[in-house]
Amino acid sequence: MNAFGWFVGGPYLYLCAVLFIGVTACKVYGYATMPRHLRWDLYPLPHRVGGSKYQQIDFHKTKQKTSLWNEFTYMFMEILFIRKAFIHNPKVWVGSFPMHLGLYLAILLLMLLLLGAGVEKLLGLPVVPINDWFWVSALYYSTAIVGALAMICGVCGACWLLYLRLSDEGLRDMSDIPAYANLTLLIAMFGSGLAAWFFADRDFSMLRSQLGSLVAFSPTAPGHWLITLEIFFIGLFLAYLPFSRMSHYAAKYFFYHNIMWDDEPMKAGSSLEKDVTHSLGGNLSWSAPHIKQNQSWLAQVSPDEAKAAKEGAAKQ
Amino acid sequence: MLKAWYDATLKSYFPDSDETFRRNTGFANPVGQAFQESMAKILDGLMDKAAPSEFVAPLDRVIRVLAVQGLPAGVAIRFLFVLRDLLEKNVDLPASDKKIWQRQLDALAEQSVEIWCECRETLAQLRINELRNRIQQLEACSVAKERGGTS
Amino acid sequence: MAKIAKPAELLKNTGFDSVPQTHWMDTPVDFRPGTWLFPGKAESLIAVDLPNPRKWSPEDADWKLPPNWKEIILDGMRERLQRYRSFRVFMDSCVRCGACADKCHFYLGSGDPRNMPVLRAELLRSVYLYYFTPTGKTLGRFAGARELTEDVIKEWFYYFHQCTECRRCSVFCPYGIDTAEITMIGRELLNLIGCNIDWIVTPVANCYMKGNHLGIQPHGLVDSMDFLVENIQDITGIKIEPTFNRKGAEILYVPPSGDIFADPGTFALMGQLMLFHETGIDYTLSTYASEGGNFGSFTSMEMAKRLNAKIYAEAKRLGVKWIIGGECGHMWRVIHQFMDTMNGPGDFLETPVNPLTGTRFEHAKATGMIHVTEFTADLIHEGKIKLDPSRNDNVKVTFHDSCNPSRAMGLLEEPRYILNKVCNHFYEMPEETIRENTFCCGGGSGLGADENMEMRMRGGLPRANAVRYVHEKFGVNMLSCVCAIDRATLPPLMHYWVPKVAVCGVHELVGNALIMKGEMKRKQNLRFEDLPGVEEDGNE
User: Fold this and answer.
1) Does residue C521 form part of some domain?
2) Chains in contact with B, where contact requires at least 3 CB pairs less than 8 Å apart
3) Which helix (H) or strand (E) holds B63?
4) Does any CB of chain A come closer than 8 Å to the CB of residue B18?
5) Minimal CB count within 10 Å: which of A262, C53, C187, C484?
6) How far apart are CA B150 and CA C219, in angstroms?
7) In a domain, C163, yes or no
8) d(CA C325, CA C334)
9) Could you list the residue range(s) of the whole structural domain that residue C33 is in?
10) Domain ranges of chain A
11) Of the candidates C509, C500, C488, C503, which has an alpha carbon nearest to the alpha carbon of residue C443?
12) Cα–Cα–Cα angle for C368, C374, C379, rounded to 5 degrees
């Protein structure tokens, strides 16, 4: 048991974390380095103050204000509160919001635990409530509250979503095996966390010391089998996440900033023009009779050629 | 009663999506809206023993939707028979009253078939109109071509 | 009262209880007449060099695909996954929250689950998962992946031609996943193996060879224009002389070609010609760039580029300073979003300046092209034209936001501003059916063919239902819009669902209300119907 516990609490978790970070980084890098695609802006655009410019009759007199701040606040609201689902899909939001909140709180918990572990290791102060140091007790209590809330929110949200998928005929139509599997995994992760907190580790001291040992690269076996189980599911979730459709956490920025809201006009000498020129020089590799092999995109579709073809047709 | 009839009807015509159509009945859900409003009117009319002309508008609204769903006419009017079964099984009333409903429902079925046919004819007519327009355009083009050629 | 029966109980022995319920992946498509479109004619495909021209029908078992069709599709998909970041993230990230499901007009009108945007995307995504992701490769069906078969191609053909690329679903998607893009890619892939529809390919071929979708040749254009000019003279007593291909004009005017030939678009075009005459702007039309619309964008992006190129080519040849585009829908998607990167930059043009008001349309600096309603709204705003809205008193108007001008360029206020100034009775449809939430006419993106009538009626139901409401509540009898496809598809839609409502372009009402210098007393509107109040005058 102890050897297994050590493996899960140590090497296994390292491996999962490396996988998570590595695959996510690859994905983000992949998205970020893709060539420019066609503009795909969908109105209204939040960084245009007051929506589209066409929403004011005399917009051309006033200089169009753009605000990156608006864009970021919108994105923030969307990511933190799942705003669009709240407006358009309230039934799902009831589950989706607590589940996401659970994940965000879990990230916060991780930071608090790291902080606590640091305090214990570096300052030698035990993170306990009775202390002359006010902020250490604050850390203790906030860790406990944030952690408990994270588990409860996560379990409730994921359970509600699973229930909804199973009971709602409309949603059942579009649910497939991965949809159920993802939710089950989330429930297992938050559920084991909740159980570990309730039965074994009310103040998260065991998890904190586990994390401390991990950071110090001297992993130990967790203090309770429930925590081993929790860590097992956390690892599984981390490793699976970037491969699954839940990888939208990596894509959301691109969704918004690069696709839905990108309305950059092309001007001579702009970086956009450079990118487009570069893209036009690329070869089309796929096979179709109308594709001339090994010729650039520009040669395939250039207006001059279109004109020449037209003149040819006119002569006939 | 209305709810049972409505649910059964949606389940029969849209087995995959009756849930969606039941869920929200504003302008965001025209099929649900048409069925719910019209079926309520039909049921009220039956209860009040209204004149046949009162049924035309609500029947028309339902049949018009069903006529473009790729169903045969016989299937399109079956929702009325579902109502008949429902009335027979669930309402305790003297036989004479039931008979009146039966007759009224028969009349409704006849009306429905007429409306259905009219809808299909309209569809065919719309197609013919578009084809005719296209031919006229082609003719206009060719006339222009001739004129352009001679001048 | 006795216990009320359950639906299942009621349906016993009615023939409804035996509906087979199979998973969507296992349900082959049933090609029922009235719901699919005729395939592209071989000669049209040849004219624009599209692959695999042949005679075939979707009803046939054998679609005569090229022998290596599978390889072509998968290569095409790989290419697009590398090229379009949008496509890539759309394929990776849907969590099936269902927000889009009941937002599609085709789903709302038909109840076919594969018309839910989430499943429409899944048609393509399942293949993506199978061939391009490790989970799909290993887990197959368990990961929602499936193999590419001919049945899948048939399904794509059927359902990607039941999406009008209106983008209503993306407004509701928490990520903004754009089904229009997925449909576009789906159609591009289908085009690689020659599975396309005639109502798109033939206009594309026409446009490529003759400059417009209808295939009207230069003299035909001039002839039709003469006809409209005569009509204007009969109504107003004023002779308008629009010019074609005039070098040195300040402005190039590019209308959708449908407006030159088909009612009620012609009335809207007449309104625009009258307005241009009255304001005395220095403009010309082109017989080559005689089409604003771009059906190429419904086949592939390279085709869109090819067809769009003529607008700048003509602008350069004629030496104009800037361009006005007519009342058209998807034309504006192409111009607003694609044109400057496809064929731009249009830096040989100047920033459009309204010669009467001096307004600089700074936002059009990149493309050099503005929408005619921007021009008109500016004129009215600055008080440069005289209007008599009472001439439109016989109509009660509502406004249908066309998908592309509203969602792809945010043009929401200008048409409304104009309508409020040129007529006295303007009513809005319910909020959830207008502006960026607008419902499609059911025939956009090349689906407006007559053989598709039944499907068009299903798809148009949500729009028609909202019109029915304002018709019954306010007596609305005129549905105005700023899209040529709307003007072609909405009249039959109204005829079927709300028979007493007619369709018009916004500028038809402008033309009616416009008081022109030296005009004779107007007795008739642009449709040669008596103006309101004329009869009483005659009796006096």
Assistant:
1) no
2) A, C
3) helix B56-66
4) yes
5) C53
6) 11
7) yes
8) 12
9) 24-196
10) 2-40+82-243, 281-315
11) C488
12) 115
Distance CA C435, CA C405 (A): 10
Closest CA–CA distance from residue A167 to any residue of chain B (Å): 11
Q: What CATH number is associated with residue C69? A: 1.10.1060
Q: Is residue C17 part of a domain?
A: no
| Nearest by CB: C497 against B13, B64, B143 | B64
C3/C353: higher pLDDT: C353
Both tokens of C390, joined, read 């009472």
Letter for the amino acid at A69? Answer: W
C133 touches chain A (CB under 8 A): yes
- For residue C325, give the 3-state DSSP assignment: strand
Q: How far is CA C89 from CA A259, C333, C385, in A?
A: 10, 21, 49
- Chain A hits for C365, CB-CB cut-off 8 Å, are 265, 267
Does residue C190 sit in the same domain as residue C173? yes
Q: C517 to chain A, minimum CA–CA distance in Å?
A: 26
Indicate if C192 and C213 belong to the same structural domain: no
Mutate to test the interface with C, among A173, A182, A295 (most CBs of C within 10 A): A173
Predicted confidence (pLDDT) at residue C8 exceeds the cutoff of 70? no
Q: How far is A109 from chain C (nearest CA, A)?
A: 26
Question: Could you tell me how far CA C461 lies from the centroid of its own chain?
Answer: 17
- Interchain pair C461, B30: CB under 8 A: yes
Q: Which pLDDT tens digit goes with each residue over C393-419?
A: 999 999 999 998 888 888 888 899 999
Q: In the prediction, which pLDDT does B148 show?
A: 43
Closest CB to A44: pick one of C47, C417, C436: C436
Give me the number of domains chain C comprises: 2
Supply the pLDDT for residue C410: 81
Same domain, C256 and C171: no
Q: What is the pLDDT of residues C27-75, one digit of tens each?
A: 888 888 888 889 999 999 888 888 889 999 998 889 999 999 999 999 9
Record: contact A174-C134, CB cut-off 8 A:
no
How far, in Å, CA of C153 to CA of C151, rounded? 5
Enumerate the residues of chain B whose CB falls inside 8 A of the CB of residue A170.
17, 19-20, 23
The verdict on C113 touching B (C-beta cutoff 8 Å) is yes
Whether residue A276 lies within 8 A of chain C, CB to CB, comes out as yes
Identify the residue whose tokens are 């159609």: C187
CATH topology (fold) of B2-150:
Globin-like (1.10.490)
Query: Residue C503 belongs to what H/E stretch?
Result: strand C502-505
Last residue in a domain, options C179, C196, C213: C196
Grade residue C540 by pLDDT with cuts at 50, 70 and 90: very low
- Orientation angle between helical segments B95-150 and C453-474, nearest 10 degrees: 110
C175 and C55 both lie in a single domain: yes
Q: Which CATH architecture has domain A2-40+82-243?
A: Up-down Bundle (1.20)
In three-state form (DSSP H/G/I as H, E/B as E, the rest C), the secondary structure along C253-299 is EECCCHHHHCCCHHHHHHHHHHHHHHHCCCEEECCCCCCCCCHHHHC
Residue among A36, A40, A252 with most chain C CBs within 10 A, to mutate: A40
Q: Quick one: C274 and C149 in the same domain?
A: no
* CA dist list (Å): C287 to B150, C218, C320, C321, C421: 19, 5, 15, 18, 33
Segments making up each domain of chain B, as ranges: 2-150
Does C316 map to a domain?
Answer: yes
For the record, the structure tokens of C153 come out as 């191609």
Element (H, E) at C308: helix C301-318
pLDDT tens-digit series, residues C108-126: 888 888 888 999 999 999 9
3-state secondary structure C467-491: HHHHHHHHCCCEEEECCHHHHHHHH
Give contacts of B 114-143 with C, CB under 8 A: 119, 122-123, 126-127, 129-131, 133-134, 137, 140-141, 143
